[in-house]
Amino acid sequence: MISVGTRWSSGDEPPTRLPQVVIDAVLDVEGELAEQNVDTSMWYWTLTWLENRPVVEFDDGTRIDYNPDLDEATVSQSDDFTDD
């Protein structure tokens, strides 16, 4: 069976099938939020696969895209979740 995606709680281990740079980006995002004393205990990450590339999104709108050609993870923030 092919898995098209998964969810996991903030603070839990990311799926091991993710590239290491994506796992590192997830941990960096969580670390930055912890330093800012943001309570993410009820937040989840959602992993989907688009064109065989992982896309990881956090409940606050943070998105991590993976570029396999560069083995690089790019972190961005959705405008839908910014304060006015």
Automatic annotation (TrEMBL):
It comes from the Bacteria. This is Fe-S oxidoreductase.
